[in-house]
Write a structure and sequence with these properties.
disordered N terminus, AAA+_ATPase, 6-stranded mixed β-sheet, 4-stranded antiparallel β-sheet, 9 helices, about 260 residues, ATP-binding, alpha/beta, ATP binding
Length: about 260
């Protein structure tokens, strides 16, 4: 298995040694379908980890276990040094507040404007904010994703790329320390996909976030990854940098880069 290259002084983000995410021997089955069969990996502070794998390899299930949306059958899931598999729902919610999740379809409320979508999320977790502070936070986060002018639009008025940006803004408004991206560029044209990938990199550099990025989009993987793991048959088949894996002699691994 390829190993992560040592961090050099030229790396733009300083990554601490202690991982913010550490998954050990994670198992998950649905009936007789064994999806995860002992997956182990970690993510350092400020690191972008890309997860690749064919459809059904368990990529999305792994990150859903990470936030308790799906219960693991067995294994340890340490987030910020706490094993979330041992937490009750209130304790788990305290961890979830520190984690942003960008769903594949952006998951906006169609009956709410952009302002209302963002405000709804913020009000649930920051109840003491004044109306002025709430508005300022909404404006700031929209400007950070380049969509300040969309504040009064409805989701139906937004393009696919704009919806992704608004979904990302809703994730960022709570200032998460970890962001989980589930197919962030799926369904987007090449130019918009590149813009979303570049925005993800800007967020990493500006906010020092740690991220897990599930994608089939290899240009996105190349732009955003510090390290890549590839799942096969419920286990990690290989890991390394984009450049290392692209040169792999394993034909199955190389098939991702064609």
């Amino acid at each position: 298995m390829m190993q992560e290259k040592p961090t050099t002084d030229t790396t733009p983000i300083s990554k601490s040694e202690a991982p913010v995410i550490e998954i050990k021997d994670l198992y998950k089955s649905f009936g007789k379908n064994e999806v995860l069969k002992g997956v182990t990996f970690s993510v350092k502070k400020g690191e972008n980890l890309v997860v690749l794998g064919k459809s059904g390899s368990g990529k999305s299930i792994a990150i859903k276990c990470l936030v308790g949306l799906v219960s693991a059958d067995k294994g340890i899931i340490n987030v910020f040094g706490t094993d979330i598999t041992k937490l009750n729902n209130n304790e788990l919610n305290e961890i979830r507040i520190r984690i942003g999740f960008l769903f594949q379809n952006a998951a906006l409320y169609d009956s709410m404007s952009v302002r209302e979508n963002l405000g709804f999320t913020l009000k649930r977790h920051a109840k003491d904010l004044s109306a002025e502070d709430l508005e300022n936070r909404i404006i700031d986060v929209l400007e950070s994703v380049g969509l300040g002018e969309a504040i009064d639009k409805m989701p139906s008025e937004l393009s696919g790329g704009m919806r992704k940006r608004i979904g990302l803004a809703r994730t960022l408004i709570l200032k998460p320390e970890i962001i989980l991206y589930d197919e962030p560029t799926t369904g987007l044209d090449t130019i918009t996909s590149r813009e979303i990938s570049e925005l993800m990199m800007e967020i990493q550099k500006k906010n020092k976030t740690s991220s897990i990025i599930i994608t089939h989009d290899m240009p996105c993987a190349k732009r955003t990854s510090d390290r890549i793991i590839i799942l096969k048959d419920g286990v990690i088949h290989i890991e390394g940098t984009y450049e290392e894996l692209e040169k792999s002699e394993d034909e199955w691994v190389r098939s991702f880069f064609i």
